[in-house]
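Lab meeting notes turned into a lecture example. A postdoc, R.K., suggested we walk through two folding results consecutively so the class can see how the record format repeats. The first protein's sequence and structure tokens come next.
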Amino acid sequence: MFVVVVVVVVVVIIVVVVVVVVIVVVVVVAVVVVVVVVVPSLLLTKLSSSSSSSFLLLLPPLFFFFFLLFSSSPPPPPSPPSPPPRRFLLFLLLLLSLYNSYYMDKGIANSVCKACEFGRYADSVRSSSCVNCVKGKHVATTKSTSSSDCKACPSGRFGDEKGLKLCKDCYVGRYMTRDFTGQTLNTDCTKCEQGRYENQVGQLDRCKYCPIGKFMPAGTQESTSLSSCQLCPSGKFQNMQKMTSCESCVKGKYQEPTTTGAVKSDDCLLCQAGYWSDESALSSKHDPRPNDPVNDNPACKACGGGTFPAGEGLIIKDDCGKCSAGLFSLGLVPPACNTKEECCKDCVKGTMKPKNLIF
């Protein structure tokens, strides 16, 4: 009988000990939950004046905590005091991460933490607003947690506002060299120089050239289209790009009035035999109104009476072929007459012509 009593007493003692241990464990868990989870959540609730949002924020860390607690293997034998368990530290990190990169909008009742929008970041917990990236920078993702997430505007773009998702392209008529980043104004983009244009945004390194056969008037800058480049007029040509003027056909040469945009000197033609010119940039084969005092169309000039065709591309009148004394001509040109013998005629009886007379 005595043995039975002893066994019963021992069992009761063991049960009591187990109950006490369980109660202690529950109390410890409750204290940890209150200190680590409930208190921060209540503080966040006070900041946002929202009880429902705190309850929603409380669920993820609670589930994670109990998962860590009850999924662990049986405890090892007692050992000397050691640093906090790794799982508990992981739980604390998770809890902190829930509040970082989010913010609580004070102006909205029953709100929840929101991810920072494009162009903004939150670098601390319990933020009530996100911070804009500064001018010259941007961030194209949400939930940014640091100012280092804001990247400098790349070359060819600029940021003239805070909180940009994407930087703005340099406007047409401008460009930016590749080593320039983080620019804040469109004026940081360089204007296209004379003889160049740019019809696309975000251009790098240089603007497009005016092509050969065209020019851009001097003083023209920030041109935005190819139409800013003008065709070389008749009597001129241009065989190089990015020019602000055209080259003139030399003396003794001309172009047809309909010829524009010439790209080489060979586009200038020699004044035909029986004509001459001491001017450059001629835009006509000959002047259809030689007696008109207003010469709107510079052209090769006829050698005139008393001469014959002596060659092409003459640049002074004295180079025109002259009929000998006693001979005259009407100043005809090919194909009416081609040689001295065909063009120069004998003076009739009773008339004369001095040597080298030209009229």
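The second example is placed directly after the first for contrast:
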Amino acid sequence: MAIFIDFERAYDMLHVPTLLKKLLNMGIIGKTYNWIVNFLSNRTFQVKIGTSFSDKYSLENGTPQGAVISSLLFFIMINDIPQGLDGVEMTLFAEDSSIYTGHQNHNKLQNRIQLSLNAIDKWCNTNGFKISISKTVGVLFTKKRRIANINIKVGNESIKIEKTAKFLGVIFDQRLSWKPHIEYVITKCKNRMNLMRAVSGNHWGASKKALLHIYRALIRSVIDYGDTAYSSAPKSYLDKLSSIQTEALRLCCGAAKGTPATALQNECGELPLQMRRLQNSLKLGTKILGNQDHPVKSAYQPHWTNEFRTFSHKDESTYTRTQDFFSSLDLPFQAPTFPTSPPWLNNDIEVDISLHKSISKKNDNPELRLISLDHMSRYQTYTHVYTDGSKNGDLVAAAYTIPILNLDKQIRLCNSSSIYAAELTAIKEVFCWISENENQDLKHFAIFSDSLSVLISIRNSFSRSRPNLLQETLRIFNKIRISKVHLIWIPSHVNIIGNEKVDALAKQSLSLPIINSTNYLELQEVFSIIKLHVVNEWQRKYDSDTKGQHYKFICPVVDTNIKYVDNNRKKEVQISRLRLGKVNLNERLLLMKKLESGLCTLCKVPENINHLLLNCRKENISNILRDKCVSYKVDFNIKNLLDVGCIQSEVYRLISLIYKGKVV
């Protein structure tokens, strides 16, 4: 059973004196405390209608909505809310909260929930909050037909026990069938799809690429929200969502009705919704399992309930949907963690990327070398250090060299690491060596790297792909006490001796038998592995699907790229229809009962795409296209006619001529 609690005007009712006491108890004093007191005190507000203003009123309680600090102050205020008693658990997201527990005995279940709700109500009375009786609801999750009466009270008033409840945008029903939520999503998506219809047509309108942007922003985002939860819904409900995706992709391509969904998905580079749900579940699992203290980590670990499910219900569990991937992933990984020290305590690092602004890869190689050497001469009194990373397949390595000391270091990283991680690891290892070996005679270092992205990350103390590794690098740099260190960007492969040497060393390091640095991945690297895994699963299902054989001949391999686009919407629609295999030629019109004969009017054989492009005599189309293929030295077949850009244009010209500009 779950109680979804709504706090009445939570932000507006925040009791400022109580908040200030909590700040003092947390040790927030001095100027910071005084600033917050000043921020919350003596605030007034007015109402404006047209050009008229109301009288001014004092704001006694609450935090100003819209201010960045308001949310933080609210979180501090509710941080000590009771977390649940006697096995009752609690979720809290800003002012949206719920308590839940399970038990076979209804009386014990009711008593547990009531005790926890009483504790929360008491806390509210102490801290100036109020539970909204009208908006707080309870749901008894069970598949039993006969349900005992449950009476839960807040004070002396009973709260409503409903069959459904909406929490954080997701509708939970008592049987967890997800039917109400999916119906809500479908209705929302259908309304938004009307926008796509308003800006698309077969002869005019937005391009396929623009329409896909609209689909992803307005429709796919709605379907994706909460999909890791409702993935356990019956297949019949999930298929309704797939129909929404198919209809949206059909509008993007201008495709005819009846076009196979498998063909539309690959043509638009859109994962089937089943694959998107798997991908999102795996990404969420990576974030959870990478954090040792995550509160819902148990959802991705074995549980006795998974062993006693019937085979048809095995996929209902998040664990069973994702265990194949995580059991095969034998690489350690970490989610982002908080820095051990605040960023303002980090030592300053001198990063010089000015050379990047003054040169271009378009410069010829000798000129690049001379410019680079001239720039490096500014650091001639420094000890030069060169770093580089290398990657070959899943193998990743790095190296650094200090020519004046005749010192080389070869480094192997965790398999499947990014080249960015390799470049950053090389610099991290240099920092480590400097911190251990610096002295009065050796205290000026110029570290040369060809990775601009790594140097920018170090300069900004921010990395999206490897935040933990960057923090580890900065911690090691903070151990350097007397040395002056500069990081300098230089271009790669311009025949600078130190750079070429470290490049060779990094490649040799790929054969090292053991990993001797950075033996873990981070989220973005695992996400890349997940994407590859999901695309492989998509390919397997794509190959086994019996529909869309015409399109599979043209595009036998799936990927997430849009396959064909053109600025001319009419041409884009016509070529897309030919590629997808659903064109309103006579053979199809006969099946639609719009013609009495499906034969070509000139050749007297069934008129389909293969006949029209390969054998038809109308406007001499087949001979012209055959000659076109010969001129471009490609085989004369459907794949090349509809996949080679210059030949596509000739196909469109001839079809427009035959059908007098009509899209078929």
